């Protein structure tokens, strides 16, 4: 099937697919909210147009090179609020915040673009990316092909796919689509079973999220439970629960190539200094390099 035929098939099945997702999402208001937002944006810019725009974007930044630097890399997550910790404080400028994080030595920046729980937007990511040379992660609940092309249009270099929310065929399809645009797909998992599904789908970057999706409980054992089953070729990212340098070193010593830290930086009075402390911890002898 060529690209044109694939797009025709997408157009014919998009409504049916969204309806099925909405049906499945009746037990998950977050997914339902995300789909409602996507529907509104797609009504303004049709899929065919957003796809064409995404294909004309400049080349992506090298996520893998950033993650394969010495020691344990630091991905700083920027967000306006969170369902666990509440508002992170007043953000006057996403551009200024991104520049401060880059000055602290972070490997990547992850921007929360989900509106419902994080009060985020794609414009936030676009503003942050334009102010830095670091690769950008679009932190959102990605369940539809439209979102992938949209993320590329706003400067995403890596896109997470929530394995627990996607049936296998859709997971594989979305993963292929992410990588066809030159971005890196990070399969986001919370259980051993989800990690196995991610590997079957062909994921080469796996992020282990210590926060449960529905209840926002923290499972500090998640990474240690899942990491032993991952092949050496897979890049491992620990998502959540990194509050300080000790947490980072603990994650790295159990196999994390990088960690994602949010509140540890976002709630600091000095973003650059807080980032620098974590980056320095990532060079500790207990943090092996690839």
Automatic annotation (TrEMBL):
Keywords: Amino-acid biosynthesis, Aromatic amino acid biosynthesis, Decarboxylase, Lyase, Tryptophan biosynthesis. PANTHER family: INDOLE-3-GLYCEROL-PHOSPHATE SYNTHASE (PTHR22854:SF2), TRYPTOPHAN BIOSYNTHESIS PROTEIN (PTHR22854). Pathway: Amino-acid biosynthesis; L-tryptophan biosynthesis; L-tryptophan from chorismate: step 4/5. Its EC number is 4.1.1.48. GO terms for molecular function: indole-3-glycerol-phosphate synthase activity; phosphoribosylanthranilate isomerase activity. Pfam families: IGPS. The keyword Repeat does not apply. The keyword Amino-acid biosynthesis applies. It catalyses: 1-(2-carboxyphenylamino)-1-deoxy-D-ribulose 5-phosphate + H(+) = (1S,2R)-1-C-(indol-3-yl)glycerol 3-phosphate + CO2 + H2O. GO terms for biological process: L-tryptophan biosynthetic process. Coiled coil: none annotated. Residues 30-278 form the Indole-3-glycerol phosphate synthase domain. It comes from the Bacteria. SUPFAM superfamilies: Ribulose-phoshate binding barrel. It is an enzyme of class 4 (lyase). This is indole-3-glycerol-phosphate synthase. It comes from Corynebacterium appendicis CIP 107643.
């Amino acid at each position: 099937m060529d690209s044109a035929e694939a797009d025709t098939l997408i157009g014919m099945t998009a409504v049916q697919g969204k309806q099925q997702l909405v049906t499945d999402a009746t037990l998950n208001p977050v997914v339902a909210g995300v789909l409602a937002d996507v529907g509104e944006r797609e009504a303004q810019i049709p899929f065919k147009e957003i796809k064409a725009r995404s294909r004309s974007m400049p080349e992506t930044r090298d996520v893998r090179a950033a993650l394969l630097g010495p020691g344990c890399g630091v991905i700083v997550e920027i967000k306006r609020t969170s369902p666990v910790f509440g508002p992170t404080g007043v953000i006057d400028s996403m551009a200024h915040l991104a520049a401060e994080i880059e000055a602290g030595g972070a490997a990547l920046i992850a921007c929360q673009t989900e509106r419902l729980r994080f009060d985020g937007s794609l414009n936030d990511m676009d503003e942050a990316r334009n102010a830095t040379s670091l690769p950008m992660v679009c932190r959102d609940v990605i369940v539809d092909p439209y979102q992938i092309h949209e993320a590329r249009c706003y400067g995403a270099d890596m896109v997470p796919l929530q394995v627990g929310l996607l049936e296998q065929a859709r997971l594989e399809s979305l993963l292929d689509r992410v990588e066809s645009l030159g971005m890196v797909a990070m399969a986001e998992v919370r259980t051993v079973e989800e990690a196995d599904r991610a590997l079957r789908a062909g994921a080469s970057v796996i992020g282990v999220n210590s926060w449960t999706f529905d209840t926002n409980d923290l499972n500090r054992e998640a990474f240690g439970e899942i990491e032993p089953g991952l092949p050496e070729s897979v890049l491992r990212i620990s998502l959540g629960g990194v509050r300080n340098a000790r947490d980072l070193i603990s994650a790295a010593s159990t196999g994390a190539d990088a960690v994602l830290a949010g509140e540890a930086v976002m709630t600091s009075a000095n973003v650059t200094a807080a980032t620098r402390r974590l980056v320095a911890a990532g060079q500790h002898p207990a943090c092996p390099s690839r």
